[in-house]
Amino acid sequence: MRPVFRAAPAAAVALAASAACADVVDMRFTGTGAGRAVSIRSSGIDGHVFAGQLMHHIDASDPHAALDGDWLTYCTDYYEYVSSSTREFKVSNLADAPDNAPMGDLKAQAIVDIYAYADGAQLDPNADNDFAAAFQIAIWEIIDDYNGSSSSLDVASGDFKAWTSSSRRGGSSLDDDIQDYLDDLFDAVGSGARVPGLYALINHRKQDQIVLVPAPPAFAGLGAAGLLAARRRRRL
Fold first, then answer.
1. Is residue 5 in some structural domain?
2. Quick one: average pLDDT of 137-158?
3. pTM for the complete prediction?
4. Rounded to the nearest 5 degrees, what angle is found at the Cα of 181, between the Cα atoms of 115 and 160?
C-alpha cells in the first residue's frame, strides 16, 4: 500500500476570500493522524490510499501568521502526493482547490457544510478512525461527484468510488461504521453553513490541503454530539 497520499478548504461562504494569489506559506507533511486504509477508484486513480487526518507543519508570516505551526488537514486531490520536504503553497479560498481543477462555489459550500456539522470532531487528535476516514471520503466524493443534488453523493456510484477490504471478501463497500458517518455528513450538505477561517493551501505539483484556522476545541459543540448520536440511531 502506498503511504500515500496519492490520495492519501461564494459570496455566501466565509472562506478567507480576501487572500491574494501572491500570498504563500511554507509547508511540509509530518505524518498521519486518525483514519483508515481504503480503496478508491475514479478517473484519476485506482488503488489503496489512506483516508483521514494529515499532519502538516506550516511556516508563515504576515498576513497569514495565524497559519504558523502544526495542523491537522484534509486533502482535496488524491491524485497528487504530499511532500515531506518544505514546499511553497499558495493561500487561497476553498473554491479554487484543487489546483488542476478548481471545485467552484457549489462544492466549496458543501464542504463548508460538513465542516460546520462536524464542529471540530474531524480535527480531534483522538478522533475515531472510522469518522476521520468518512470525513476525508466525503470531501473527495463532493469534489468529484456533487452536482447540487443529494442523490449525487453516493460512493458506490459516479466517478468516485470507495470501499474497505474488510467490508466483504474482495471489498465492494464501506464498513458499516464508516458508511453511517458518511451518511450523516452527506445529510448536512445543503445547510448553507458558514465557517470563517477555512483555507485551501495549493501547490501545482503537490497535494493541496484544507486547513481551519483556528482549529476548534475538539467536540466543542452540538454538531459532533449530534453526529455521534445519529450514528447510534442508524445502528439500532
1. no
2. 96
3. 0.84
4. 80
